Fold this sequence. Notes:
CATH architecture of the largest domain: 3-Layer(aba) Sandwich
Low-confidence stretches: none
Number of domains: 2
Number of strands: 11
Largest sheet: 6 strands, parallel
Distance between the termini: 52 Å
CATH topology of the largest domain: Rossmann fold
Radius of gyration: 19 Å
Bound molecules: NADPH dihydro-nicotinamide-adenine-dinucleotide phosphate
Order of helices and strands: EHEHEHEHHHEHEHEEEEHEH
Amino acid sequence: MMAEKLDGxxxxxxxxxxxxxxxxxxxxxxxxxxxxxxxxxxxxxASQVYVRNKARACEKAGIEGRTHRLPADAxxxxxxxxxxxxxxxxxxxxxxxxxxxxxxxxxxxxxxxDAVDPLKDVDAFSPVNxxxxxxxxPRFLPCTPHGIVQLLHRAKISCSGKKVCVVGRSDIVGxxxxxxxxxxxxxxxxxxxxxxxxxxxxRTADLAATxxxxxxxxxxxxxxEMITADMxxxxxxxxxxxxxxxxxxxxxxxxxxxxxxVASAITPVPGGVGxxxxxxxxxNTLMAxxxxxxx
Length: 295
Ligand code: NDP
């Protein structure tokens, strides 16, 4: 079997185009262009690239992207003040605090994320938005798992009644992913929901057998190529969230070449899940602008 490649880059381009069109309509109705404020603390090169890419993507979609920079040693108080200032600024619709915050500076990441106004929380990290998602009445959906839902929907891959295994239980990817696919319905209807979900992690006994039982396997671990072909059920769909730098190459959490021999469909790294995350951030920013203009 040679797996079909699920082209996240292509789907992300489609979504960005759709968001761009909706932004045009929103602005044509008399509203100001949506505005996303990104907060970048310190000089981490990867974070700088992410923030720059997000700003460029905003611009292409007609969204205003502002970047607020603080030095690595700005401290908790100054960062909180900036977040509160952005919360109070009516020209800012979405707020994104780029993670990770600099290490060795004693930042309390949780307190910072909790301070973001839930109506401007386009990353969907606030406990209010997480709670709404848990109850099946989401406001914002977290960008990476929502991108995966969109990818599955547009590739016409149903999850309903299927066994899904999510490997990794982070608050950003694994947990919300599991929750979204276990709901009765989701942003793309009941077909990309209603799964029987297993959430695996580092204490899972016999991870290989757990993975092999899944019709859809989603790896969000952060360990290069740890999911090997023998851990995949023949014909399964494999979604690789991992982005790991190995030498000068980016590799996923799945051994791509091996998995292609067993799976029916698979996302590549790069060009799979990664581009979808930014596309869904744009979607959330437009949604935030609409919510705020309605309130
Ligand atoms: P975290 O480090 O927050 O979480 C990793 C999870 O993997 C934890 O739940 C951990 O288990 C689990 N884990 C670690 N080792 C093993 C193991 N040997 N067996 C089973 N489970 C294991 O990672 P993130 O969720 O933030 O990110 C995961 C990957 O996805 C990274 O490569 C990251 O770069 C990438 N990523 C990609 C995005 C994109 O846009 N494509 C967006 C966000 C992340 P435990 O809880 O027990 O410690």
